[in-house]
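Assemble and predict.
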Amino acid sequence: MKATATFISTQKEAPADAEVVSHKLMMRAGFIKRLGAGIYNYMPLGLRVIRKVEAIIREEMVRAGAVELLMPVVQPAELWQETGRFQAYGPELMRVKDRHERDFVIQPTSEEVITDIARQELRSYKQLPRNFFHIQTKFRDERRPRFGVMRGREFTMKDAYSFDRDKAGALKSYQTMFDAYKRIFDRFGLQYRAVAADTGAIGGDASHEFQVIADTGEDDIVYCPTSEYAANIELAEALPLLASRAAASQALAKTPTPGKSTCADVAELLKLPLAQTVKSLVLATDELNAKGDIVKSTVWLLLVRGDHDLNEVKAGKVEGLKDGFRFATVAEIEEHFGCKPGYLGPIGLKKPVKVVADRTVANMADFVCGANEADFHFTGVNWGRDLPEPDLVADIRNVVAGDPSPDGKGVLAIQRGIEVGHVFYLGTKKYSTPMKAQFLDENGKAQPFEMGCYGIGVTRILGAAIEQNHDERGMIWPVAIAPFAVVICPIGYDRSPEVQAEADKLHDALAAEGIDVLLDDRGERPGAMFADWELIGVPLRVVLSDRGLKAGTVEMQGRRATTADIVPMAEVVARVKGHLAA
Amino acid sequence: MKATATFISTQKEAPADAEVVSHKLMMRAGFIKRLGAGIYNYMPLGLRVIRKVEAIIREEMVRAGAVELLMPVVQPAELWQETGRFQAYGPELMRVKDRHERDFVIQPTSEEVITDIARQELRSYKQLPRNFFHIQTKFRDERRPRFGVMRGREFTMKDAYSFDRDKAGALKSYQTMFDAYKRIFDRFGLQYRAVAADTGAIGGDASHEFQVIADTGEDDIVYCPTSEYAANIELAEALPLLASRAAASQALAKTPTPGKSTCADVAELLKLPLAQTVKSLVLATDELNAKGDIVKSTVWLLLVRGDHDLNEVKAGKVEGLKDGFRFATVAEIEEHFGCKPGYLGPIGLKKPVKVVADRTVANMADFVCGANEADFHFTGVNWGRDLPEPDLVADIRNVVAGDPSPDGKGVLAIQRGIEVGHVFYLGTKKYSTPMKAQFLDENGKAQPFEMGCYGIGVTRILGAAIEQNHDERGMIWPVAIAPFAVVICPIGYDRSPEVQAEADKLHDALAAEGIDVLLDDRGERPGAMFADWELIGVPLRVVLSDRGLKAGTVEMQGRRATTADIVPMAEVVARVKGHLAA
């Protein structure tokens, strides 16, 4: 393709609202154009990348036995009412009424619609397993759209849905998708991790996120460099750092800690390790009556070590907190602890609270905690002696780098990632049971489908790829999803007939090899031309000039390279092929 | 591909709400599945056809120099307010508010958005001409969605938009698109006509519809079999059928025509040709004041020959009717004509009306018309003698078959068509001027873009193709857009190892030739298997059986053929290729 046959529009400056590098570079390189908050036009170069991403996904989905169809963007609310999601989904769900005042949604996903198809089309166990997917426009009315395509409102997603006769089948379908996703992300040429993830509100038992590694990612990925273990921070299990509780060796003492309300400040003041302190977090749960009024509230004290952080997802799995919790109000705290936040602890409570200790805290001895009196902490605190054993012991903290790996095969490391894919075992509860989506088994008995769902954020891939691969000059695309694999930059294309003829010839020779090559025929000056293609991030550049041609050579330079190779004209095609295959 | 790798789900009966054959067949063949009124899931076989249609469109658009991008489905209302379409567009425009109560539309087309892109990106005449297109989901909230994909609410459309510096350039862009559309429809393998069309409310000067010929079409296409002339009925010019007015030869006479209120009844009663009668149609126009109240109404009498029909689009072009008209009320008619509808005519009016005669009526002599008295008509009516000359003479009727062609090269014929494409010269008034979309010319002066827009209803193509190509057994697809070009039907695939081996071998051999072949590996019985593929309309079927293989032959049968050819195994690939290329 020639540059004049597509549309290239680069800018020196990114708009002020672009906060992250991928957003800035996509705007500057003319990949996207803002239409509204979180809504973008995909300009020709951006669309080329999208199409390549889609093609890889499509090929691997089909290879894995999934069948493509296309479900509508605008979906009747009735189906969403069957699962309760029409009510339960927050304002992210864009709701709309048609001219007859009937309710519709702009789809954020298509579980209801595919389940509706399945309950009509899949009548017998003989038709199972079955996996349908589509690549379609989605809309989520984000409260604060930002980061360009990373958290947009309208985006393209591939979503697949599997239907199986039993859990074993569903887990096999899940594994098939997991393997397909690995092939897809391998083919993208991105560094990624498949991490075990929490199943969250959607329910189900098995879940993995595919995270593209990037320092700018929003998610913490926990992994063990010496084993296969990988999970997101919400799920990664924190083992107790103390195998057992040591005997008490200090007396309980109330120590003045004026103005030191954080564990770090207290540890510094007392010249103790931070790991000797315990942090108090106060939650509350409410019991409601049928009218939705609060009839009783319970206050909870959660204890994690001073150098650890509470993991709210894990807290939400503690017996008694499963149905939802909130942070306690200051009034509730004062009522139960007799003290304002900052000096709270489990000793000397005014009213009963439920005490949940993190596994590590439960094994601590001689620890430090707030004294429930402003400007005082206790030191030398010991379970059993100074206060009752905790009501519950649970894993309620985030792991930190250096923690033992849950698989016992090393210690954990943490890196940042961007979630671009998700595979999810759904089971029967969320969709097939409420929608009465059933098949007949061998005995003629109706059984609900065991389901799984599998998403890839197509447009988000672009942002993630750029966050991972860029430098101060611009984007750096992996060959498989680059807008063009090779750009030919002829110097003086508009002036030198020889340069023009050789550039055209090289273009045709590379195109004939099936290489996605662009010839820059715009007649730009070398500096501006090179800057454009570095910004756009084409992986390989071939420069033709009168001087080079006289010597029978061209210059070839990979996007990450700092110098060019001088390549004899006769070898260019082979060298380009070799470079792209590497 | 093997049948078990896709999803085949056929039905004997179409649902009751399917009125037209394409809707029935698409439902029965499992191409679409209803999700709501006018909203369909595209099932795997239907989606295959869509993808082939899209690929052909995309190739020819790119060949014609258009550049693909992707504009959002959900579009901010602000742009639509700039052109006034947010207010002016009827309830077909799906309007929606986001969580912040901001207005959006679900796009039915993208003129505003592309014009917004152009005014930002195309700053100089040097960047022109430019043509952008996208293939995207559209939504139109039809009052009465029906006919399956023919008049659905959500559908896929290719829309292209050209930007030029002047009208000559815009008309050249228009011609380029016109030529590209011809290539596209040629490649689809459908019978079609490009017909000149009215430019309607959208404005502009040049417009052609691409109509797929089908007896079940909703549009009348007018064409001249002996010339290139083709237009839709709204536009096709009706020349006067009488070159000049004959001298009066009859006296005016009031004749009783009791109960005969139509021209046909009157002609029969009086034993006169229908072409001797004149039909009266009464319209009204209103003048409004600034508040929108009617301050004055004018009544119009439009006269067409008894065997002709009023063309409301043409009437709307008559001086005085251009700003909109309505049919007169019965009260207005009685006030001006002194008579109820049924016996109206231009003679003996109670109050002044504006009389518009069709070109043919203006040249009639000794004609028959209503006498403005119930149960009476005048005969022997002559202009000038019995009534004043008409206020206006204009082309206000539909052409009929046999009318002279406006190009003077023969007589007109009429056939039915389905509009699937439209090319449209927009000019500057509708979008570029109100949106201040301008470029700088050579003199540094800002000029509005001369625009054109060009649509193809992607999903509608499926319905139109089926309306044109089907028989009692099902659809008949042209090779280029068939879900599969060839189906291999092995008899006893699940029982006979030899049949299975040969079928697999033939599948691979055809696939290796780049032929889109499906092997039916479901193990269905021949009757059901053949019925499925006839319903689905695959253009060519190859049947393998043990008996045939013993003789070294297969049976090959085109979808329209009534008998099969016996083809030696060694020749099958060549014969299939030959058949598909034919």
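Residues 253-394 of chain A form a domain with the YbaK protein fold (CATH 3.90.960.10).
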